[in-house]
Amino acid sequence: MFVHIAGTGSYLPEKVLTNDDLAKTLDTSDEWIFSHTGIHSRHIAADGEETSDMAVKAAGRALAEAGVKPEELGGVIVATSSGDYRSFPATASLVQARIGATNAGAFDLQAACSGFVYATRVAQGMMQLDPRPVLVIGAEAMSRLLDWTDRNICILFGDGAGAVVLKASDEKDGILDSILGSDGGSVPPVISCTGGTKVCPEDPVGGKMHMNGRAVFNFAVKIFDDTIRRMLERHGLTFDDLSLIVAHQANARIIEAAARRMKQPLEKFFLNMNTVGNTSAASVPIALDEAVKAGRIRQGGLVASVAFGAGLSYGGLLIRW
């Protein structure tokens, strides 16, 4: 049995926050932000617009494209670090009820920005035992976790949701390979102390996100290359066989550095962070959906995806579309 992505969908909130908007309250500028990140603007969830709201909208679009009815689903997985509730219930349970997936199990998965890749791997494994379609969603309201006075972090993130429907098939290809990993042996360079049992007395702003940007950058560039290379080599393929690389949209400079390390043209990488920013676990599925809608991914194309985030977690997917 093979597992294919049968449909994609995404949702971005209506409100757009530009770099010029940020410059009104921060010591920064559009030129500085773009030169360091490749980001011009990002979408911000409206007051009262929750992670589950965005997830439901992305899910509906993916289901419609896949031609799958909600009651046909065997599972709903939401990858998120910013669910509706701090602990429980799972955001996936809220989504499952609202879309009418009455026969599906539902749970959240938290692997930070790598969450969608992890969730897709988990869904693929579930389908080996139960071949019913699975809805995998990455959804984040990152704006609720940010210290909006910290110009090094708040400029990076945005809100949104992306979804895919996975279907089992006797037709070969689909998701060919995946890699999951973590480097949790050192002090995490990305951390949010909100909730949980660990007391963080060093946290000066009440549980907002902290990041060691340089450590993340160096880790991401190396793991970007290594993860894709390992998947390709296991199938006797090379970078030249790839039609497109759809990576976590964390920072354009990371992708540019990875492209140089991999000796691949930047045109082979799909980029949308200029208008979306870093949407954490929603980043890869939003980018996949936009790439499909733009005609950058076509049937038969070989697509690699890689993500990296707090933990430090990382993961990759190799897909024959």
Structure report:
By secondary structure, the protein is an alpha/beta fold. The protein folds into two domains: 2-170, Peroxisomal Thiolase, Chain A, domain 1, CATH 3.40.47.10; 175-320, Thiolase/Chalcone synthase (Peroxisomal Thiolase, Chain A, domain 1), CATH 3.40.47. It contains nine helices and 14 strands. It has helices spanning 19-23, 30-37, 51-66, 91-99, 115-127, 213-234, 252-262, 273-276, 283-293; strands at residues 2-11, 15-18, 41-44, 75-79, 105-109, 134-141, 159-169, 174-182, 190-192, 209-211, 244-247, 269-270, 302-309, 313-320. The strands form four sheets. Strands 1-7-6-4-5 form a five-stranded mixed sheet, with helices on both faces. A five-stranded mixed sheet has the order 8-14-13-11-12, sandwiched between helices. Strand 11, helix 7 and strand 12 (269-270) form a beta-alpha-beta unit. It is globular. The protein starts with a strand and ends with a strand.
List the SSEs and their pairings.
Elements: E1 2-11, E2 15-18, H1 19-23, H2 30-37, E3 41-44, H3 51-66, E4 75-79, H4 91-99, E5 105-109, H5 115-127, E6 134-141, E7 159-169, E8 174-182, E9 190-192, E10 209-211, H6 213-234, E11 244-247, H7 252-262, E12 269-270, H8 273-276, H9 283-293, E13 302-309, E14 313-320
Parallel strand pairs: 4-5, 4-6, 11-12, 11-13
Antiparallel strand pairs: 1-7, 2-3, 6-7, 8-14, 9-10, 13-14
Helix pairs in contact: 3-4, 6-7
